Amino acid sequence: MIEFLHENFRYLLSGISVGGQYALIAIGYTMVYGILRLINFAHGDVFMVAGLIMVYAIAGGLPMWLSIILVIVLTVVLGVAIERVAYKPLRSSPRMSVMISAIGVSYLLQNCALYFTGGLPRSYPAIPFLSKQITIWGATTKMVTLITPILTLVLVLALVFLINHTKIGMAMRAVAKDFETSQLMGIKINSVISFTFVIGCFLAAIGSLLYFSNYTTVVPTSGAMPGLKAFVAAVFGGIGSIPGAVIGAFIIGICENIIKAFGQSWTVFSDAFTFVLLIIILLVKPTGIFGEKATDKV
Amino acid sequence: MKKFLALVLAMLMVFSLCACGNGGDSGGDKVVKIGVFEPITGQNGAGGKQEVLGMQYANAQNPTVEIGGETYKVELVIADNESTTDKAASAASQLVAQGVSIVLGTYGSNVAIAGSNTFKEAGIPALGVTCTNPQVTEGNSHYFRICFLDPFQGTVHANFAKEQLKADTIYCLGELGNDYDQGLINYCSKAAEKLGIKVITESFPKDNSDFTSYLNNAKKAGAQAIFAPCSIQYAQLIVEQSAAQGIDIPLLGSDTWDNNTIVGATKGKDVQVYVSTFYQEGANPDFEKGIKEWINGDAKNLENNGGNDMLAAVTVMGYDAYMVALEALKAAGSTDPAAVMAALPNVTYTGISGSIAFNEIGDAIRDSAVIKKSNSETGEWEFVAVQKAEA
Amino acid sequence: MNETMNKKVLRTPDEVAKRQGMWLTIVALAILYAVLFALDNFIKPSKFTLMLLPVLKKGAIYSLVCVSMNLLNGFTGLFSLGQAGFMLIGAYAYSIFSIPAARHAAVYQYFDGGALQFSIPEMLGNAIGVNLGSFLGAIICIIIAGVAAAIFAALIGIPVLRLKSDYLAIATLGFAEIIRAIFQWNGLGTITNGSNLLRDYTIFSDMKIQLGAQVFKLNTVFPFLIAMICIIIIVLLINSSYGRAFKAIRDDEVAAEAMGINLFKHKMLSFVISSFFAGVGGALLAMFQSTVQASAFMSAMTYELLLIVVIGGIGSVSGSCVAAFLYIACSEWWLRFLDSGMLPFGNIEVSFFRDGFRKVVFSVVIMIIVLFFSKGIMGNKELSFAGLIKKIKSKKAAKAEKVKEGGAA
Prior knowledge:
By secondary structure, chain A is mostly helical. Chain A has helices at residues 2-7, 9-36, 43-59, 64-87, 95-117, 143-165, 167-177, 179-184, 189-214, 224-237, 242-262, 270-284, and strands at residues 122-123, 133-136, 139-142, 217-218. Chain A has twelve helices and four strands; from the N terminus they run αααααβββααααβααα.
């Protein structure tokens, strides 16, 4: 048993690390969906842009600490700007229009990235502490693999505290429960929504620092797959639920790597597996593991 | 709304008319157009740009050509095929519409095959620069190429693994849905099995960035070499993660791996990378001095080359392709595509990457590839061997 | 006497306009096909036509696919993002059955020539002559392509159509990805050729018609013809009682169900029919591209189609068609200069015009349309000659009224 575990420890390790990074993106999806009922298709691309900001900040000669701060600030600004420009005007439109707008923003971000990078893959700079090589239980890896799950848990606990025990958190819960009533109760709905995007993008920026330290190439489509998988994770855990998103992300990250470990023709379907999982969960338990039962309003 | 739309439509019409009107004869000089059918954006954008650089340098050095006793100015017409098969046809017809006499390209065999039919219907010859799939020239008379082929390259790798690395197990990793990767792996594993090497083959999905599990699979299987003929984007990740995971298995890369970004990624890391390629830097110092000065002379060129002046083999191939095209134009004695196509099979040329002559299928006759190794101290390529297909 | 009176009474101005509009439409279509036929056969290729023809072909194909997507998203209110997957099935089904037997060894070079060793156009060609054979063969293969996509849709539809709005979107998107993985899998390589291209099958330039001793090419006419027939079928469906049921489901599911509309049955019908035509569109796209590779059918393609539908107007067939032609023309022809670094007039170099700028401009335009002109070009109205005539008449009437009033004053 120990022998078996030891042999497959590497897979588990990378699974946990990928899972943590998906989790940080998935929270952005789940919170936005919880409040606006919108699949923010552009979230994965915001994550990619965060990666590119880092590349250009370091290339521009900024010191590491300043670059990291810049990445976080600019990503948050970008996220809030997207909400203000592309989603807010459509708040009373049918859900399909907002989703199309989200797809449009995603398209725009990818094409802008293509324009600025000139289509060349960009190498992500090594963040000294995160990129250090370490060996745990016979498996060599980067420090970031170890840091990711820990940092993810800390951030999620902080977030849960924020939502359950602060005034803005209460407002967010109220808005998620009933959009119109909370507006009537005097909650400033725009600032609550903006705050949601601030949190989502902050976590995406942290996620991008961790993710690209591990996978050091940024291309315009870098955000699409992690974004989609993080969304699946959010659905899996029950969309709207933060612990659900985190657990879903870890499950998907680990399963994906276990499938790859089966080798041979299984590896072909490692991405397809994620979607099969999604469809199964949607059919068996559409509200996900932790989701609340939603009632249809006529 | 309607007025706005009408305005937009009217503007587009004007644009389209202008686009048609422009590009005509500009001045009294006679102009011959050479089409460049290359990916500038998309998955193979980096490689495509370097290939175009070679052609542009060749054009800067040899801006005119003597055809039938008259001097023609050579104009390069570049069409971006975006590295995808669904954009290939329209990019190709753009070149046809511009009235090019011959087409050079493309990096990425699948796009070459997808664009091939448009050139065929227009009767324009095409000269493949680094598209190595046998299907590019198979069964047609208009596509030629100056590089070696996948069956050859795959065999070279199998032989190299056997002779130099003494491997008895190799691990092949390619992108799912990419014919280049899968084709090379197919040839390599066939050749390797003939040599008595055990082969394990796996594929990763498009846009994958986590290769740690694949690398671990290779290690678990006891492979002594990892053959991963994939595009630059993935190659960089594989090199990086192999180093981070402390996997000390040599990585074998195909011609796509011969790129600055990859050798740059090996710098200061404990990783061995071998690539098969068309040309070894340092083989022709005069040529290299010239092209490096030219690359360094323009910030745009420098950026397209990946930020430094290291010479990629595809750039050399691009240069040679341009020169072969000029030879063909000279031999044809006319700018008529049909005449150029008729002249091409008999063209021979001694280029920077070696002597070029075509066989009856339209492929260059080449019997050797250069194997290079990364030097992780200097971050540059080192010459290892010239490998032949016959062991 | 009485009879003619009755007839005159029955012809309301609306009916007259409709009848006139129908004639005008037929005349316009006849002119269109005459022009296309001339372009294919008699007009010498010039710079202009060389760029125009591919745009027209692809525009016709995209029109069909967008209309089929509109049937689902605009008329039935099912937000599906699986279009690229169904096109993929169609493209593969078409090309697999139309690769000539002699070419199998070369195309399926890694899979020992593949499992199938026949080609429908070739077999028909041997029986009834090459030109007619490949024409009919291509049509049969196109129908096979549509049916294959429809069967897959029916299988997928059973579980997926129970889901609502955004869940449906993400599930269909997921299915498209799964389909792509399956087609690329080496295990099915003897049929799908794995990751490699399919090529050398019957394409548009094989579409010829023999009239007497003369052989005429149908390069551009063929995609227009197929696309038009399919779009007409979709329009007839939309105007039938099924179409009204679809619209009822779109407007209010609960109310529709209360009215006795079988939700699942109608959703399934719409999904399967839409996928059938997406499959046909995929087959046409395969003919246009002359090669098929699964990796081109990414979700980006679905997004592109969705944006065309939005630009044209969700719920407008003619809007989708107009938008498809505009989009293809802009992205593959008119706006290409944005990438080249030169303005199209004069030889002015613009430093920020470089690779990828075209796409940036494009996505900005799309965002502007989505945000400020959310109805798109047509909204949910249709472009028709009948409507035009009515409009002109009512304007004339209004003018006459004004003149009268002026006279009275």
